[in-house]
Amino acid sequence: MPKRTDWDYSEETVRELREGELLIRVLFISLDPAMRGWMNQSRSYVPPVQIGEVMRALALGQVVASRNPQFSIGKHVTGTFGVQEYFISEGKGLIEVDPHVAPLPTFLNVLGMTGMTAYFGLLETGRPQPGDTVVVSAAAGAVGSVVGQIATIKGCRAVGIAGGAEKCRYLVADLGFDAAIDYKSEDVTATLRKSCPQGMNIYFDNVGGDILEAALANLARGARIVICGAISQYCSTGPVHGPRNYLSLLVNRATMKGMLVFDYADRYALAAQEMVGWIAAGKLKSREDIVEGLETFPDTFLKLFKGENFGKLILKVAAG
Amino acid sequence: MPKRTDWDYSEETVRELREGELLIRVLFISLDPAMRGWMNQSRSYVPPVQIGEVMRALALGQVVASRNPQFSIGKHVTGTFGVQEYFISEGKGLIEVDPHVAPLPTFLNVLGMTGMTAYFGLLETGRPQPGDTVVVSAAAGAVGSVVGQIATIKGCRAVGIAGGAEKCRYLVADLGFDAAIDYKSEDVTATLRKSCPQGMNIYFDNVGGDILEAALANLARGARIVICGAISQYCSTGPVHGPRNYLSLLVNRATMKGMLVFDYADRYALAAQEMVGWIAAGKLKSREDIVEGLETFPDTFLKLFKGENFGKLILKVAAG
């Protein structure tokens, strides 16, 4: 678990822009479980953040100075700006967003990488069919809540696993999940058996550990497990807990497949367009848990690993 | 590990045939790792063998009496006859085999469920492309040796993992594998890295445990892992050892998929036809490890779990 002393807060003057650069004032920072993985010194899909570097993070900001003709002052953009107040960019990898389409934090949530992860993870890796039972863990979290809602939109039965009665109530009453399981007070394996008497067709995993094993114990034949994350394991200091009952894949002719949202970058815009339509139709709700103040980062970030956030966790750095 | 005292040897008189039945004299019995799984009292793809029942086994026999017009005396058939000398059948599930096509034991090996498992597991679940690197564990075993040979036929690079220098030599020199790794004397993770500098595209797993983890540590992007078995875990009395580094599936956008040969029953005949062609062309070799005597079953069966068999393990019960 990262400690406050793992972070250093420092101030420096923003340097002059060079030709082709623009200066972005960071307004909102996306706090994601994946950031914990970026802090590990092991080979992964992106290089680790090095000691002394600015912590990597996705964020949304506004152009406040520009020597790049593509991005004029006042425009809103998202990108990997890091946990800081200002970011100098050459324009590479920026996505311009239109604040008239949705409130700004939505572009870090349903219309950002969070929503894209849910959309492509469920639709491309899970491949839901109408009538399928779709189970998602960390269901009240940013990705999970979108997965369940898209499952419902696609004619599936959505079952969410979350921590606490309030989150479970929210999933069913506010987001339209068919059922919710409170892993803090229920035996997940037994309750899944009751909630999914025919087994689950899709399990979208954000947590790993015991809950992944409970899912493996309740697969329908031909089930698809989407491996999106494993938050229960990210802060583990012992060996990662591998799914001991993975041979359920054999018995059920099931598939476990990893996904990374970056592979779908060429289709983000199309997906966002479809999701904007669902939001407008009232079928897809976006909920953010917004905490103010860049200096709160070390503590706010930990909410993710303690299961304390309710909806997409966002750090507000400045007024939009 | 099953003990000799877990088995009981008994003799009884074969009863009279009823209308529609036939009597099969068992000649060869197929000894397979899956049989160990059938002895566990847990939910699986077939019901467990109950205490007091004849041990379930695939076998090949000859019709010696018949009141079933479909099966005349003298015909050779394969089916689930169990570990016994005679089997009374109603004809259901029997496959007639032609002893002119291949030696009888071949019908329990390359042309039987063993070969079908390798064929459909590799081609349908693994989906090899020419140029792919295909790694298979228990490569000198019945299924593994066929997987590697089919990989080569399909234009892939075949790498086998087996126990001992003699098995490794056999894979490369006799079966045409591109490389072999001796798990008894080599560090499998490190040697795989050297043998597969670009990572493996397909890993066909028969063993589970540490070797599955070594494979997960060496995946190419988009790799497919075929879960066919996990012999290292079948006799484990402790908890099964789940793959701790399964998040390599996420990093590499890889797939782990279970397969059961029975799902392809409607295509066995076509597959066998293609394999007969490969055998005739000298591209596919069938090797059997034949032990004589029904009474040796308790000890012979254990050869599988000690890695002592070399090729398909078959019990010879009577002369063909």
Secondary structure layout plus pairing:
Two copies of one chain form a homodimer.
Chain A: E1 22-30, H1 34-38, E2 59-66, E3 76-79, E4 86-89, E5 95-97, H2 113-126, E6 133-137, H3 142-153, E7 157-162, H4 165-173, E8 179-182, H5 188-195, E9 200-205, H6 209-216, E10 219-227, H7 231-234, H8 248-251, E11 255-258, H9 268-280, E12 288-292, H10 297-302, E13 312-316
Parallel strand pairs in A: 6-7, 6-9, 7-8, 9-10, 10-11, 12-13
Antiparallel strand pairs in A: 1-2, 1-4, 1-13, 2-3, 3-5
Helix pairs in contact in A: 2-3, 2-9, 5-6
Describe the structure.
Two copies of one chain form a homodimer. Chain A has 320 residues and is α/β, with parallel strands linked by helices. The first copy, chain A, has ten helices and 13 strands. In chain A, strands 1, 2, 3, 4, 5, 12 and 13 form a seven-stranded mixed beta sheet that branches. The first copy, chain A, has a six-stranded parallel beta sheet with strand order 8-7-6-9-10-11, with helices on both faces. The longest helix of chain A has 14 residues, at 113-126.
